[in-house]
Amino acid sequence: MGQGRHIGDLIASRRALLGGLAGLPLLNLAACATPSAQAGAALPPATPLTFARVAATNADTVTIPIGYRWRTLVAWGDALFDSVAPNFDANALTRAEQEQRFGQNNDMLALFPAEFSFPPAKDQTRMLMCVNHEYADPAMMFPALTSPQNLTPAHAEAILASTGIAVVTLERAADGWRIVKDSAPGAGHNRRITPFSPVVFSGPAATHPWIQTAGAFVNGREASAAGEPDAIRCGTYANCAGGQTPWGTYLSAEENFNGLFGASDDEAAPLIEAQAQPAYALDAGNFGFPTSNPLRRIMPPQFDLSQNPYGPALYGWTVEVDPYDPNWAPRKRTALGRRKAECATTALARDGRVVVYSGDDQINEYVYKFVSRGRFDAANRLANRDLLDDGQLYVARFDEDGSGNWLPLTVAAANAAAREAGYTALFRDEGDLMLRAREAARLLGATPMDRPEDVEALLDQNWTGLGPVLIVCTNNREQSFARPGNPRRESERPNRAQSNNAGHIVRIDEAGADCGATRFTWDVFALAGDPNATALTAPPRDGAPVHVSTSINGAPTISGDRFACPDNICIDSAYNVWISTDGSDAVFADCNDSVLVAPAAADGPRPVRRFLVGPVGSEICGPTLALDERAFFAAIQHPGESNVAGVDYASLRWTRGELPPSNFPDGGASWPRAAVVVITRDDGGKIGS
Ligand code: FEO
Ligand code: CA
Ligand code: CA
Ligand code: CA
User: Fold this and answer.
1) Do 275 and 427 meet the contact criterion of CB atoms below 8 Å apart?
2) Does residue 230 lie in a domain region?
3) How close is the Cα of 365 to the center of ligand 2, in Å?
4) Same structural domain for residues 308 and 445?
5) How far is the CA of 453 from the centre of ligand 1 (A)?
6) Distance from Cα 240 to the centre of ligand 2, integer Å
7) Which residues of 351-371 are buried (b: 16+ CB within 10 A; e: fewer)?
C-alpha cells in the first residue's frame, strides 16, 4: 500500500540528501529542519519559573514543590447528586448508581466559567469542569471479586457506565476549589454521559449506512431517546483527550474504541456479510477488530460484532458537549473524521474560521486538522453550534527540508490515489471518506508519526492561533526508518533501525502565522529522554536499551529534568508548556509518571523542570490551569494499575491475589481510585511563576 512505497521513497531521498555522512554518530543524521523554522512566530520572552524542581520519586502520592499544596477534588465513585448515597461502595456498584457518580480513569479536564463569556472571564468563583473517563480495567473495580470468571452482565454495565464524560460544577470556597452536588440529575449542570446515553450524529457521515444499521440495532435494545428523535443510544466511549471551543462547548475525542468489541461467533451471518465488503475488511484491519474479548460473554449485545458488525462505526469520532445546556444531546461531529482520536484542540484562523487539531494515537498514524467553512461569532454563542459540521479536513505531510503540507481529504483526491494503488474499496461520498479517514490519509501520502497524542496551538487572548503548534508524539516501539518529524528512529546500520521509546514533541509553524494555512514549517521542540545522559542508551525496566539522547545534530534540545513518553500538554498565558507523561517509568524506573514544565520560547536547550510526580501505577492526564492560573488541575488516571516494577495489577490480582500496589488517594489500606487533584500555592499566587 501507499505507506510502504512512501517509506522506500523517503529512505532513498534521505540517503541522497545525507551523502557521505553515514558514518556519523546516531542522531547526527536526524532532523534536517532549518533553524529558521523556529523563527516563524514572535513569542513573548519566557517568564522565569520560580518553583523548586521536584525530585524523582516512586512515592505513592502526589509530590509537588515546596510552597505548594494538593488535595483531591473528586474521585471515582464520588456522588455528583444528593439522590445517591454519599458513601461509595465499589462492591455494590450498579449501572444506575454509576450514572450518578464520578467515573473511572479520568483523562481530559476542561474548565469553563460558570456563566459563559468570551473571552472567558478569568476571575471565577464557580466553574464547570468537563472530564473524560477513558476506560475501566475490571481488575480495578469490585474489590471483593475473587475471579474475573465471577463478573456478570450487571458488572459489565456498571463498568461501561463508569466511562464516558462527566460535567461537574466547581466552586471556590475558603479552603479552595470543591465540587458542588446537584439535588438530582437534570436539576443543574452536573451530568454523566456514558456508552448508553443518547447522542446525535451530525455532518457528512450521519446518514452512512453502517451508522444507520448499527444505530437501529442499538436503539432496538435501549429505550428510545426522548426529545432528540434522531438520537442513537450508543453514547460515547474511549474518551481520551479533547478540547474546548471559543463558544463554550467541550470536545471529547474517542480513542481506543476497538477494545469495546468482540465476536461471540466468527461464523455469524451478519458478520460474514459485513466482512465480504472490501471497505469493511479494511476498516476492521485498520482499527483492530474483531478481536477476542475476554469480557465478551458479559458485554451487552451491541458490542458483539457477530450481532452488530457495524457497531465500531459509531465510535472513533469527536463528540461536542454543551456544558451549559444539559438538554442538548452530545453531537458526534463526523466532519472531523474517524480515527483513534486523541484530542480535538481548537484555534481561530486569522479570518475567524475554526481550526480543530487532532492526533491519531496509534503507531504510524497521522496528525489532522479541520478548518470550518463558517466563522466564529463571538456575539452569539448559539450561532456557532453547527460550525463543526461543515469544513475541510486535512492531514499533515512533513517533508525532509523542514517544510510541510496540510493535504486536503477530498473524495476526488482519495479515489484518484486509491485507483493508482489498485484499491477496490473506493470512497462513495464525503460521509464514507470521513468514516474511513485513516485510509484516505494513508493513500494521500500523509506522514506516519510516532503515536501523535495531544496537539496544542499557541493562542492569543482572543483564541486566535499565533502560528506555532506543538504535536506530542508519545513513543513508537516499532523499529522502522525515520520519517520527517520523527527523527529518533534513525538507522545505526543501513538495515537496522531503532525505536523511539522515549517520545518527542514536534513544533510546526503555520504559514503566515495563520492556523488556517495549508503549509507549515517544522522543527523538533524536544526529544524526551535524559539531557544529562552520558550514553546514547539507557537500560529500561524491560531490558531492551532505549535511546535517551536529547540532542539533534549534536545540539541538545532540552536541559534539566529527564522524562519520557509525553502525552497531554497545556500552555499557560506566559507560554509555558505543561507536559504530562504516560509510561515514563518504563524508561526511567526511578520516577512515576510526572508533570514537567518548559517554556515554549527558549534560546538553546529548553529548560525542563519537574513540577509534579503522581502515585504508583498512574499516568497523569488533563493538565490544566484555572482561568486565573491560581490553581492547577490534573487527572490521576489508573493509580495502582501496575506496581513500581511495571507488573500490571490484573495479573497480580487474579493469579496471586495481591492487594493493589497503590492506595491513592484515600491512603491506608483503601482501594485505589482515579482522581482529579487540584494544586495551589500556599501564598495563593500564580502557579509556576
Ligand atoms: Fe488515551 Fe493516547 O492516550
Ligand atoms: Ca493520552
Ligand atoms: Ca491538552
Ligand atoms: Ca498515552
Assistant:
1) no
2) no
3) 15
4) no
5) 6
6) 6
7) ebbbbbbbbbbbbbbbbbbbb
365 pocket-lining for ligand 1 (C-beta < 6 Å): no
- In whole angstroms, give the CA distance from residue 623 to residue 571: 9
265 and 131 in a single domain? The answer is no
Is the pLDDT score of 191 beyond 50?
yes
Residue-range definition of the domain harbouring residue 268 = 256-315
Please state the atom number of ligand 1 nearest to the C-alpha of residue 256: 1
Residues 94, 100, 105, 110: what is their CA dihedral angle, to the nearest 10 degrees?
170
Q: Is 255 in the pocket of ligand 1 (CB under 6 A)?
A: yes
Q: Is residue 302 scored above 80 in pLDDT? A: yes
The rounded distance, in Å, linking the Cα atoms of 214 and 452 is 29
Whether the predicted pLDDT of 456 surpasses 90: yes
Q: Is residue 376 within 8 Å of 459, Cβ to Cβ? A: no
Closest ligand (CA of 360): 1
pTM above 0.85, yes or no: yes
Strands (E) in 376-464, as ranges, are 391-398, 403-408, 452-459
- 243: enclosing H helix or E strand: strand 239-244
With beta carbons less than 8 A apart as the criterion, state whether 221 and 301 touch.
yes
C-alpha distances out from residue 454 to 131, 358, 369, 543, 621, Å: 16, 7, 12, 28, 10
Closest atom of ligand 1 relative to the 255 alpha carbon: 1
Q: Which residue has the cell 466482512?
A: 275
| Per-residue pLDDT tens digits for 120-141 | 999 899 999 999 999 999 999 9
How many angstroms does the Cα of residue 270 sit away from the middle of ligand 2? 34
Grouping H, G, I as helix, E, B as strand and the rest as coil, residue 25 is coil
Degrees, nearest 5: CA angle 64-69-73: 105
Whether 360 is in the pocket of ligand 1, judged by its Cβ within 6 Å, is no
C-alpha cell at 413: 483526491
Locate the ligand 1 atom nearest the alpha carbon of residue 340 and give its number: 2
Q: Are 167 and 182 in a shared domain? A: yes
Count of helices and strands (H, E) across the chain: 10, 34
Give the pLDDT confidence score for residue 29 in this predicted structure. 28
In a domain, 163, yes or no: yes
- The burial of 614, by beta-carbon neighbours within 10 Å (0-12 exposed, 13-18 middle, 19 or more buried), is given as buried
Question: What is the residue whose three cell numbers read 461537574?
Answer: 168
Q: How far is CA 571 from CA 392, 458, 472, in A?
A: 26, 7, 13
Number of structural domains (the chain) is: 2
Ligand 1: does its nearest atom lie under 6 Å from the Cβ of 240? yes
Domain shared by 91 and 199, yes or no:
yes
pLDDT of 2 higher than 80: no
Rounded Cα distance between 642 and 650, Å, is: 8
